[in-house]
């Protein structure tokens, strides 16, 4: 596995964990506020690996925007859950899945070009 494959595999794993933590939070688990902030693992990846190694790729900007949208959506769903709008929060997980799918497609496209 070359460096690019490893870098993007790390991002995929962080995305899977992100989705899992959102799902847990809207099904009654305690939300990890740090994780859902820009200083969380995915935010760190974009600020370090993404910005340093891949900043010349136009997709990185789009991927970063999708990540920020994921964070915003996750925080909104957690807020809905906390305010008693449980069904709406559960329904909103579809938005998380759509954004994650878009991000995954971009990751695969970039990785495919670099390998």
Would you give an account of this structure?
This protein has 115 residues and is mostly helical. Helices cover 79% and strands 0% of the residues. The chain has one domain (3-114): Four Helix Bundle (Hemerythrin (Met), subunit A), CATH 1.20.120. The protein is elongated, with a radius of gyration of 15 Å. The protein has 4 helices and no strands. The model has no long low-confidence stretch (mean pLDDT 94).
The major β-sheet equals:
none
Which CATH architecture? Up-down Bundle
Briefly, what CATH class? Mainly Alpha
SS summary, helix count:
4
Helix and strand pattern: HHHH
Helix share bin? over 70%
Low-confidence stretches: none
β content, as a range? under 5%
Distance between the termini: 9 Å
Name the overall outline: elongated
Chain-averaged pLDDT: 94
Structure characteristics:
mainly alpha
Task: Write the SSE topology.
Blueprint: H1 3-26, H2 41-53, H3 58-82, H4 86-114
Helix pairs in contact: 1-2, 1-4, 2-3, 3-4
Protein name: Histidine kinase
GO molecular function, one term: kinase activity
Keywords: Kinase, Transferase
Short note summarizing the structure:
It comes from Rufibacter hautae. The protein has 115 residues and is an all-alpha fold.
